[in-house]
Design goal:
Layout lengths: L4 H36 L3 H20 L5 H24 L1
Helix pairs in contact: 1-2, 1-3, 2-3
């Protein structure tokens, strides 16, 4: 454990931030999973709604520095492509 008062404070702050970041990262993973599950169930409406939510949460997570902004952009892009492909497949059938 730290010996100086400032080091103790730093340790407490880093633990608090780590918990906040872990929570944000978990939430981001869960919204991505929600889009993928909706796509697997062939539920385009729910997938589109989940995509909007996922986009917002991924952007917010990246903005806070929890994940890299290019990581968030890549996830959003791939999810949007999957949702659009599912829509196109449904309308062509």
């Amino acid at each position: 454990m730290a010996n100086h008062k400032s080091a103790v404070k730093r340790h407490k702050q880093s633990r608090k931030r780590a918990a906040r970041n872990r929570s944000a990262r978990t939430r981001a993973r869960n919204v991505v999973k929600a889009v993928r599950v909706a796509l697997l169930e062939k539920n385009q409406d729910r997938a589109a709604e989940a995509l909007v939510t996922a986009t917002s949460i991924l952007d917010r997570t990246a903005g806070k520095g929890v994940i890299h902004w290019k990581n968030a952009a890549r996830k959003i892009s791939r999810l949007a492509r999957a949702v659009n492909a599912a829509r196109a497949e449904q309308s062509s059938s």
